């Protein structure tokens, strides 16, 4: 039986040169870093509160709140770039040389980039949708387009449409979920930072910059990841379609894929029991 954890009881703070990073800590054992996704009103706590107690029975769970999403101190620049700095600052501040890492959506991309740049610091990697590149499906996916529409013109109706694109079962989108997401998503600073990432103008600018850049994209460097990697995906993901997993499955040295049926983008929420069983078996397995 899992112990009930509370937001206040797990909340922590870490001072860094770039501002205060806030996080949640629960459990004892080997460190497990959990990185949240993006989108209106997202937080690490909201992404992982449903599975945190179960994971904390086996690991020292550290749920980092990325700068720019309304919990940790605000950031300057693009939220994805700041997230990269935040992971290194966080682990250095806690004196952790190596961690197992779980990343949801944007957090999965950040975790993947960190494992590419600092492979010795990631013992195992789990992603939840998002990490890869579309092969067959149009890009950006439906959920990203709806997210852009909300960011350009934040209305409650557009938030609800976006939330429904995240799940297979519409019953998951409760009034309580809508209200808590709406409150944080429309906070002035959080919305301003979101527009750096997901407004139509910002998204187009990022696309132009990527096309002009000579830098190698992260999805073309997956072979640099040395950690055993588990990709978890909802078969019915409308944000990051499951065909995105094809390239990582070709390039990851030690990659494996688990696809959950009747499940959207939030695999850890919508396929909770199956996801937990799969991820815990992977994390606890001796791959030496």
UniProtKB/TrEMBL annotation:
Signal sequence, start to end: none
Start and end residues of each AB hydrolase-1 domain: 30-270
Cellular component GO terms held in the UniProt record: membrane
Source organism, top-level taxon: Bacteria
InterPro entries (UniProt xref): AB_hydrolase_1, AB_hydrolase_fold, AB_hydrolase_sf
Pfam families per record: Abhydrolase_1
Record-linked Gene3D superfamilies: alpha/beta hydrolase
Name by which UniProt lists this protein: Uncharacterized protein orf72
